[in-house]
Amino acid sequence: MDAKDIDYYSLGFEYIETKTMFVSDYNDGKWDEGKLVPFGKFEISPAACVLNYGQGIFEGMKALRTKNGERVLFRPRENAKRFNDSASRMLMPNYDVSKFVDAVKDVVRANEEYMPPYDSAGALYLRPLMIGNGPIVGVRPAKSYKFIIFAIPVGPYFPEGFKGIDLEITKKYTRAAPGGTGATKTCCNYAGSMLAAKEAKERGFAQVIFLDAVHTEFIEEVGAANFFAVINGTLATPKITGTILPGITRKSILELASKKMGIKIEERDISYKELFENSCSEAFCVGTAAVITPIKSIALEDKKRIFSEGEPGEITRKIYELLVGIQRLDID
Q1: Measuring CA to CA, which of 60, 81, 233, 327 is 20 to 30 A from 288?
Q2: pLDDT (tens digit, 9 = 90+) per residue, 211-251?
Q3: Which residue segments constitute the domains of the chain, with CATH numbers given?
Q4: Cross-strand bridge partners of residue 126
Q5: Which of 185, 198, 239, 251 is labelled catalytic?
Q6: Would you call 185 a catalytic residue per the annotation?
Q7: What does pTM read for this prediction?
């Protein structure tokens, strides 16, 4: 799509084809130098490991436009490191962190005309991904891999934007189990969450809250986002135990709340029952795509807890303003 034909002030979180992508191939035990190529299709064997056994990983990043027109990335090395953590878990080759960041910057520069303006609240979303494209019949890792980075202009992940969303807790489905790949950003994790989300949306909810697979009591994630709640004045989030994604936005919020705002933080098991008590005053979900999205209400079967009529809570709003201000260089 031609960049000049896009309405950057009405963007959702949908696929829009841009101009250029980065591609690098791994063969004979090493990566090539990689290069920018026109965005487009590529050939793949029907026996490719990613198609048969799901050997694929990805990241989500955003390039933002500042008030004075600069292009900025938020903690890209953290994405590169997590990408390699995912690769190691899926028996895939690591990619040099500095080269990863350089390639991301190259893709941003090559697609700069697609970057939404500062006052649109949009971003250029970047999708680094790696697939086992080598043909394999037995269950074992591929011998060749493809690393790709493409970009699309996006608006808010949830149509509500920075307004509260309604969520449903599911006890029917779980996202990940101990010892599995819950902390890995692998394609497989997300395909398995789609049915739960679809059913929740059919009942009028924006997304689903997953509980732990062992006790079906403790909060894990909101669809593909990390969860936070303000309980007795403390900012609490589920602890990293190998079943939830170690979110970069999650990590940043914990640091900002503790060091910049003086808010007490806790990483711990959070029972869904706590969300229905008066001690829980606010809740929100976070991620690269979701940024910080307030939670308006949470439901489980015939129980419902309403936190607001849609407006964010005080702590949620302050954290959002600080995080977004830092990301767009409005705040040092």
Answers
A1: 233
A2: 999 999 999 999 989 999 999 999 999 999 999 999 999 99
A3: 3-154 (3.30.470.10), 165-327 (3.20.10.10)
A4: 61, 151
A5: 185
A6: yes
A7: 0.95
